[in-house]
Structures are given as structure tokens and as C-alpha cells.
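tool=predict chain=A
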Amino acid sequence: MLEIATFDARAGGNVLYKALAHPLAAEAIARLYARLPGPVALYDPDGIAAALLALYPGLPGPITLFVHDVAAVGTARAGLTARALTDLPQAEARSVLIAAFDASRASARIAPFLPSGAAVASLDEAKLPPAMLTVPARPLDRLNFATNFVFFRDQDGLSTRLVSANYWAGYGAGPIRLWLRLFGADGAPLATWEQDLPAGPGGFSIDSREVRARFGLPAFTGQLFLHAIGAAGHDVVKYALDTYASEGRASLSCTHDANAWPSDRYAGLPAPRADERVVLWLQNSHAAPIPAGAVTLDRMGAERPVALDRAVGPFATVAVDVSEVLPDLLWPAQIELRTGRHVVRPRYEVTRAGRTRIAHVNVERADLRPEPAITALPPALGRGFLLPFPVLDPARFRTIVQPTPMATTQTSLPLRLDLFDTAGNLVGERFLGCLDRAHGLALDLDDLPATAAGHAELVYDFRAGGTADGWMHALFRWEDRAGGHAAESSFGAHIFNTLMTWRDEPQSYSGPPPGLSTRLFLRLGDAERQGFAVLIYPASAPWLPHSATALILHDAAGRPIAEERIAIPCRGSATVRPIEVFGAAAIARAGHDGYVLVRDPTCRLFGYSGLEHGAGAFSLDHMFGF
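tool=predict ok
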């Protein structure tokens, strides 16, 4: 496992990690290492030596580690025993590397104590160029690293299109531009370019077909690194990503932004049905190779991980057929992926009857423990944690839900499913039991039965015992009964629409809880594929009888050009198709990169959006907000 600190649920992202892992930092550190003669004295004032050597193990040796904290002397970092900084003058070193950014003061402090003739360097040589810094005065400001990865492909008749908006403009940002680098399957850069975003909250897109034509590229499947320069408010690049058939096939799927932070484990990877092939797209997020055996797959709850017997090069992409690693495993079994913090949230691709669909796995938390308070939340919080998802028209679609363990300590999942019609009436429920970690439940809502479109919610139910930690997740699958196309998504639970709060719930898009407002991004699609959304008004406790939801159509420059209002009943839902709401003429005025902002200041809606194709294909994944 890489010895790196990435994301902390309480403190947020580790900016030092992002500064070290940036592709431009990787190039600079390679140049730095190449010119440093060994032996090297490594001075670690900020405690990042372990991360530095994990991501960049090629520092010339032998290496001696020095610290100024007396309590750290004698401790181990990256396999090195820390020595006191007072020993530095006697070190047998030809180079001294200060493992710090903005190291001028540290450099001045140790200047009188350097080994005779030793050269001095620091990670200042790996800082981003000033033109790429949103906050130049603070090189490690989190807004300097508004970055993310994208699964990006233009190969085998499938293309990808990233769609988002300049939501930073709503937080007071000035001009925004994207720095982009496309890596091919072997990890080699295929193209690097910049793209200006609209001055206001306009939409934008990046289409793999256009990128391929612009740079004269061969077919590729790899990853696109995005860096937003000039960001305000958010330090993660949010997006929706459509994968569509570009050569007359019926495949269509969508997924949302990557997690942006490597994790030890991921869950929510389904085993294939007997007539399916499931491919895990493993994409190295770093300049250090992933060694053979460092990535493992295991049936969830089995604790018998099977190692992937091949290495993955720096920034490379490999396709892993899960049946080759776990040949006897079939749906509804689930797979746990252990990646040793080498990758951000991976995608997986399911192929059945010539159609493909792509979805993502989720971060499996290692920092959570069962929380006894959740078993007895006060009445003001009503049903507490809810996990809502759409139930599409049962006459056409099957809706299937599979609870997924999403924390390493989850050994029980005490759950109930509540079913609602679009008007918010409870029309059915099913106690799912106190499921164990290795459960094989995938509930087809035909079994309830679901007789009309609406939505369902997973909730905790402790009638048979069990524990909870609030990190309830599930995989949702929708299948077209006639055409055979399918879509799937996964997400986690929150407390919704209560005046009272519990810790950080109900969550807010910005600021402290309670989160009682909505800002969701709904893309329009294109001439062949029309956008749609299912908006759900979940409520843990009784809330306002109806939402006051505005659907605001924006053009590509971010100008509102039309607005319509809808009222969704509490605990109800509504399906929204922009072309039906605004008409074809207004959609044409909005243009290729227009979008709908779903805005509601009175309640927190939860939404799923996708595209519909005339050939019967569709996609669906949960929406992002800002």
C-alpha cells in the first residue's frame, strides 16, 4: 500500500498529496532526482518523506533521513530511521533534499549545518508554474489543486463526452481555464492543451471524438486529467460523463465525477451474470508503477483476496476481466477491490448482448465504526438516514436494488425498503433483514410488486438487531424489459429535510447543516440523445407539503433564457424532460452546451439524470450539485 495521506472526512483533502501527485510535479521531480548525486540526506520538516518516496521511489541512494522534532528521532518513515537534524553536518551526503514546498526558510535554517560540499535542493522545483496557480501567494492553497481524473475513450465504436458548467462563477471566480492532459492506455501523454470556460456560469463539454480529430490521435482508451485554474468555492472538478456508441450501436451509459482521492478499498463492483462480461478499468493515478500483486479482488465478505498478477505502468489503463481473476463468481455476488491507494474511483463496464454500460465503484471507508446513537435517533429526525432511488415505469422497466457494504467494519446491514408513488404515498414496504457482509440479496421490485413509477428508499430497521454507521450504500439497476438495455448507479444515504441536525446531517452544498436547498445540474443531451431526470423529494421527517422547484434553462454562456416551476409532493418524485418542459425552440437556443439548473431554496431534492436514445438505449446516474 502506498504510504500516502489522501482524504480525511473531517479535514477534507490533503493538499500536499495533490501537489506531489500532479502530472507536472511528477515530471519536475523526475528531473530533480536525475540531477541529484547520491548519497542523499533527506530533511523532512513537514512529515511528507514517506509520501514522496512512495510516489517517487527513484531518489538516488543511499538515503539518510533527518528530522528536527526530537519526538520523531528514531521513528521509521518509508523504511528509514529518522536521525536528529543536529547530525546533518557529519552525514556522508553529496546532496541534501528538503522534502517541503515553499522551503526557503527551512533552507536558510540549515545552511550553516550542511555536509561539506553538499548541494541543496527542495520540492520548490516541483511547484506548479505561477501561471497555473489560482492563489500564487500560497502555493499549497487547496484552490490551486482543483483537479480530477476522467475515464476517457474513443475506441471500438464507443466515445465519451464530459459535460459540466462553470459553477465556480457562482462563488465569485474570475476567468477560469482548464489545463488538460490525456494519457493513453500505456500511460504516455497523448495530448496536452488548455480550454477557456465561459465567463459566467455557462456549460461546457469535452468530446473524445473532437479531441481525437483535433490532435490527429489513434483510437485510445485512457484517462484525462483536468486542472481548473482560477477556481473558487470548490476544489474538485465535477462532471457528468456520457459513454455513447459512435458507430451506430445502441450502447449508452453515464457516470459522474471521480472521487479525486485514492482509497485503500472500493466496493460496489457487481459480479457478472452468466450472460455478462464485467471489465474493471484499472487506471493508475500516479507516476509510480503499480507492482504486480498490489491490487486484489475478493468476493465481498470472503476475505480470500486474489492478486492481479500484472503490473500497471505510470498513469496507464488496463482492462481486467473479473471472471479471469474470480472465475466462479456470479451475480448477485459482490466484489471488493483493494488497490493500495494507487487509483481514484475506478469504472467498470458490463457487456451483455452487444450492449455496454459503464458505472463506478465507491470508496470503502476505513475510518468508520458502528455508531450506537443511530439505533435510537430522536423522533425529530424521523426515519433518519434515507437512500432514495428511482423506480422507473414497471410496465417497461425492471428496477433492482442491491445493498452494498461500504465500510470495512460493516458486518451487518439492517435494512427496510419503503416504496412511494409519485404523489408521495407509501404504497409498499419490505423488511430486507439484517444482512451480513457477504449477502447475496438483489431485490427485484417486481416482487413487491411496484405497479407504477415512483421511487423507493432504503432505511435502517433494527427489528432483527444489527448495527449502523450512517454509510449505507446500494447498487441500483434498471433493465428495459423489451429492448434489453440496462443502466446502473450507486450512492449512499443521508438524512433529508429535517429542521434538526445530527452531526453533519442534513448535509449542505456549502456551509454547515442543515442542507435545505437544491442546486442540481441537468444536461440537455444532443440531437440524438435527449436529457432527462428523476427528481426525488425525500424527507426523513414531515417537511413542506410541496417543493418550490425552479427549472432554469441556461445557454452555453450561462445566461438564463427560460424558467418553469414544478411542485413535487413531499416524499414524491417527478420525471423531467427539458425538451418537454421548454420546447425544442428554447432547447435549440440554449445550444450544445446549455443546461438546466434545478434550483429549490425550500428543500433538498435528490436527483438521477441521464440520456434517452430513440433506439431504446438510456442511461441513468445520480446528479451532482454545486
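The chain has eight helices and 43 strands. The radius of gyration is 25 Å.
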